[in-house]
């Protein structure tokens, strides 16, 4: 069977970053014939050599696919990939389903869904949670919404990508709303974990021991347990970058204002991510918030890895 033939169907993944590359790997492992596209030709070549095929343009990637999974940074990039000149939508075949995975405001998901549906194609709003490692394992949590026929068409691909798949509503925007709630908590928990571990350092405690104790105590959170090891190891390679939470908590601030619903804790976390980005760490791991706290009070954390 050639790379362009598969019993599972043909899938394209638009965006081969840390999450998208793992998503594409998981689809290939599940038996899809996968074509990858990214603006970085070297990444496309690496994916094609190891896992499937590469495309030199968005339209070439989408032309023959049954399912197109768009894993880019934000709503603007998703819109450009879909609706820009030479974009995905104009190249898709009838009956194809587009799965949009970027975190975005619910109204943006609804707008994109309406544009896709007006063109006679199917659309699933399917933001992801779980990080790059889980993406590569096919073990993401996916928060999906869309018309039943769109969900049914996308279901084999979603199952290949996810350990937990939640079908949350019959129209785009519902999945996006759930993801925004998740990101509020995630951002707050990362900021709190960073604050706590540097506070412990200021108290003269062995922060490795603090991690061990808190991870087994009521103060633990998934983010504390996941991110503090990055700090202990001085490893700030971006699994999830500071700039991601500048974006996502910024979306929450916009929604907070429009809904006249105060989110003071999320707003405080946003300021910590903004200051960390302003200090030159926007592209580094989001646990870098701890480095900002340490800089402010003149403490030394484990040295960043070279």
User: How big a fraction of the residues is strand?
Assistant: 5-15%
Radius of gyration: 20 Å
Strand segment count: 9
Shape: globular
At the fourth CATH level, what is the homologous superfamily of the largest domain? NAD(P)-binding Rossmann-like Domain
Please write the string of helix (H) and strand (E) elements: EHEHEHEHHEHEEHEHEHHHHHH
- The end-to-end distance, rounded to whole angstroms, is 44 Å
Low-pLDDT ranges? none
DSSP summary: helix tally: 14
Order of strands across the main sheet: 3-2-1-4-5-6
CATH architectural designation of the largest domain: 3-Layer(aba) Sandwich
Mean pLDDT: 95
Secondary structure: helix percent: 55-70%
The CATH topology assignment of the largest domain is Rossmann fold
Structural class: alpha/beta
Describe the structure.
- With 306 residues, the protein is an alpha/beta fold.
- It has 2 domains: 10-171, Rossmann fold, CATH 3.40.50.720; 177-297, N-(1-d-carboxylethyl)-l-norvaline Dehydrogenase, domain 2.
- It has 14 helices and 9 strands.
- It has helices spanning 18-29, 41-51, 58-62, 75-83, 88-91, 106-118, 131-137, 148-161, 174-202, 207-215, 222-233, 242-259, 264-281, 289-297; strands at residues 10-14, 33-37, 53-54, 67-70, 97-100, 122-125, 128-129, 140-144, 162-167.
- The strands form 2 sheets. The protein has a 6-stranded parallel sheet, sandwiched between helices. A 3-stranded mixed sheet has the order 7-8-9.
- Helix 10 packs antiparallel against helix 11 and helix 12 runs antiparallel to helix 13 (264-281).
- The longest helix has 29 residues, at 174-202.
- It is globular, with a radius of gyration of 20 Å.
- The relative contact order is 0.10.
């Amino acid at each position: 069977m050639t790379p362009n033939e598969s019993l599972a169907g043909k899938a394209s993944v638009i965006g081969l970053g840390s999450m998208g590359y793992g998503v594409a790997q998981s689809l290939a492992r599940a038996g899809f014939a996968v074509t990858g596209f990214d603006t970085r030709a070297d990444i496309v070549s690496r994916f094609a050599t190891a896992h499937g095929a590469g495309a030199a343009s968005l339209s070439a990637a989408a032309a023959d696919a049954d399912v197109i999974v768009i894993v880019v940074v934000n709503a603007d990039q998703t819109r450009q990939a879909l609706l820009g000149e030479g974009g995905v939508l104009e190249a898709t075949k009838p009956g194809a389903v587009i799965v949009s995975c970027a975190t975005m405001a619910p109204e943006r998901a609804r707008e994109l869904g309406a544009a896709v549906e007006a063109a006679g194609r199917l659309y699933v709003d399917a933001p992801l949670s779980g990080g790059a490692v889980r993406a590569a394992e096919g073990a993401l949590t996916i928060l999906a919404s869309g018309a039943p026929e769109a969900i049914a068409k996308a279901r084999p691909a979603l199952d290949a990508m996810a350990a937990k798949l939640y079908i949350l509503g019959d129209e785009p925007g519902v999945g996006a709303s759930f993801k925004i709630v998740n990101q509020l908590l995630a951002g707050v928990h990362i900021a709190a974990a960073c604050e706590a571990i540097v506070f412990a350092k200021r108290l003269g405690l062995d922060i490795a021991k603090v991690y061990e104790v808190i991870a087994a105590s009521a103060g633990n959170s998934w983010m504390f347990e996941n991110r503090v090891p990055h700090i202990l190891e001085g490893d700030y390679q971006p699994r999830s970058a500071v700039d991601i939470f500048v974006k996502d908590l910024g979306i929450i601030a916009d929604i907070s204002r429009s809904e006249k619903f105060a989110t003071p804790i999320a707003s405080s976390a946003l300021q910590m991510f903004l200051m960390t980005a302003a200090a030159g760490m926007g592209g580094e791991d989001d646990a870098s918030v701890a480095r900002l706290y340490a800089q402010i009070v003149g403490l030394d954390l484990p040295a960043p890895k070279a």
